[in-house]
Each structure stands twice: as C-alpha cells, then as structure tokens.
Amino acid sequence: MLIEEHRSLKLFNTFGIDCKARYFVSITSVPQLKKVLSQEIHPSLLVLGAGSNVLLTGDVDALVVHIDLKGISIVSETDTAIRLQVMAGENWHEFVRYCIEKEYGGIENLSLIPGNVGTAPLQNIGAYGVELYDVFVSCATIEIETLKERTFDRSACEFEYRDSIFKNKAKGKYIITSVILELTKTNHKISASYGAIQEKLAENHIENPSINDISNVVIAIRRSKLPDPSQLGNCGSFFKNPVLDSEAFKRFRSKYPTAPFYEVSVTQFKIPAAWLIEKAGFKGQRYGDAGVHKMQALVLVNYGGATGGEIWELALRIQKKVKQDFGIYIEPEVSVI
Ligand code: EPU
Question: What is the position in ligand 1's atom list of the atom closest to the CA of 127?
Fold first, then answer.
C-alpha cells in the first residue's frame, strides 16, 4: 500500500480534470482500508470510486482514498433468484454485463451508467424506469470515525430519486465496501415502458425482449446521446431534474404548455432540467474548454483543458439563467469538491 504525495487525479475523475491530491492511496482490501483510516495522514479525507459523479474544482488538500476493492460472490440462491455480493470497486457496467451473461435479470436498464458498484447506492442510480432501489438488499460499510463495520439494509439507506442517507445524514461518515443485490434467474421483469426503449425495440423488430435485448437497446440509446467519458470528459447528468409542487407546476404549465414533465405523485411534478437548460440557450454552447453537450443539455463536458473551476463557473451561470428565466432552482447532481 503506497501513499503518494501530490498525485495527479486526472485519471481518477471522468471529467478528466487535472488537479492534484496532497496524499493519495489505492485500497484493495478492507483491512488495508481500516489501516489507512487509523493513521493520521491528513485531517481531511476524500473517498473516490470511479470519480464519475464528482467535480474537482481545484487541488485536493486531503488524503484521497481510491476504493479498488474487487470481487463478486454468491450470497444465496433459489431456483428463481440469486443474491450477489459485489465489492465496491467493481465497475458498474462490467457488472451489468456479467449478470446478463449469467442470465441474471433486474439491472439491464442500468447498462452503461458510469461509475462503480460501491458508489451506486449514494445517488440511487437510475435510468429508463429502473433504480438501484429495485434490486438492492443491503450494503456493508466502514464507519470512518470508529472503524466499525455497519450494514445498511434497503430501508436504512433512505433511498429517494438520486438520493440516499449517504448524501444526507450519513454524508462523509461511512465508506461503502460492498453491496448485496437480488436478481432474478427466471421470469425476469422486463421494463420497456420508456418511449425511447419502445422505439428502439420496434426499430429492431423485437417483440418479446430478453434482458440482453434491453441492455443492448439501452446501450445504443445512451451512446447516441451521452458522450463517452474516455473521449470527452463528463459526469453524465450534472443537475437533478427539479420537482415542483402543484401550485408551482400549475403556474409553470400555464406559461409553458408544451414543456415535458413527469408526474411523480399527485402533488409532485418533475420537469426535465435538460429542457430548461436548452430553452435557456445553453445547449451545445462552449466557453473555452468547458461546454454543454450538443446532444443532451444536462451533460456538461470538458473539451480537454478545462479546469474544475471553469466547469463550476459554467454550472453556476446555467443555474442563474434558469432561475431568471423560469424561477426554478436546479440543483447539481454531482458532488462538487
Ligand atoms: N430534453 C431536452 N433537451 C435535451 C435533452 C432532453 O429538452 O437536450 C428533454 C426532452 O423532452 C426529453 C426530456 O428532456 O424527453 C428527458 O430527457 P431524457 O430522457 O434524456 O432524460 P433526463 O431526464 O434528461 C434522466 C437521468 C439520466 C438517465 C435518463 C434516462 C437524471 C438527472 N438524469 O435524464 O441519468 O440516463 O433520465 O432514464 O435523472 C445520469 O444520472 O448521469 C444520467 C445520465
């Protein structure tokens, strides 16, 4: 276990921001993690998984712990279902493909989401009508202050739309080391209700899609509008979709009758932030090396040499203009450090 000083984090964040960590260590076992946390290396700590949901706005004056725990094992199994324990450092998409090859269903709609398994619970990753919540059983963690192991079951995680206890009350207090998910072996629940999925299935003349078909369709849709971080630095959706109450929604709707929305409940309406950002005039705009993706206005991109500060400046500019134009506050989905 090597503790490096002034290490570049360029390869450890998908925005590709070239900033430095005061101290940096990669962790490959839970005992190693406990050992590092028990030493007084630096008073501040930043835990990084795949760095796919973080904007680093400058050098990080902290101990950066890169979680590189690997492994997949079977916890229990029946004829119809299987529980897998997956270590936090496994790449999410590779894990999805592993499940599809083994014919385990439940996460095919979450194909190609960047990031690692261990960071998936933080923001309850979701796409095309499925969320991690749907298959989640529990996660194992280490409490940073006491080094005690604690398991959070599904209700203890307090999952919400792109949210969990780990972004709120428990923020910065625990490190997730592994996750247990329950997947189906037979009678998979195919979720194909999203318009984009239906269109792609029809285009390919697929009537009874398998989990592999769904995964392939999701991959094709995502590739067509979301940039690949290895080609163009980005963190997927930068902002959350704002949720309006009935009153605010009524006012918004009377002004913009054609705006898209999703009804979350009878009193809550989600407006696509991408639509607000596009209407505010930012889609495809570029300011130096920081920009707004031309296919998906919710995605901010680094054309190569942008600093984290420049991306953040652009995000603030977007936030201000959307507030001015629509009276709606859009909140970042990524963690801004
Ligand atoms: N739209 C625009 N302009 C754009 C893009 C979209 O006006 O540039 C409008 C369209 O009307 C479209 C609507 O926004 O119908 C919604 O767009 P999309 O289906 O692409 O979904 P989204 O709400 O923008 C969310 C997730 C994505 C996830 C997709 C698909 C959030 C914050 N983002 O995006 O997640 O892939 O749904 O389910 O909820 C991520 O978290 O990194 C991510 C990419």
Answer: 38
CATH number of 233-336: 3.90.78.10
Q: Is the CB of 292 under 6 A from ligand 1?
A: no
Topology of domain 72-184 in CATH is 3.30.465
Contacts of 28 (CB under 8 A, 6+ apart): 68, 69, 70, 89
Instruction: Indicate if ligand 1 lies below 6 Å from the C-beta of 93.
Output: no
Digit-coded pLDDT (tens) for 68-105: 999 999 999 999 999 999 999 999 999 999 999 999 99
CATH class of 4-67: alpha beta
- Decide whether any atom of ligand 1 lies within 6 Å of the 19 Cβ: no
Q: Which positions are annotated as active-site residues?
A: 162, 237, 333
How do residues 319-337 score in pLDDT, each as one tens digit? 999 999 999 999 999 999 9
Q: Where are the chain's structural domains?
A: 4-67, 72-184, 233-336
Alpha carbon distance 11, 335 (integer Å): 17
Q: Which two tokens stand for residue 66?
A: 């890169």
Residue 21: count of CB within 10 angstroms of its CB: 25
- Measured by CA distance, the residue closest to atom 21 of ligand 1 is 272
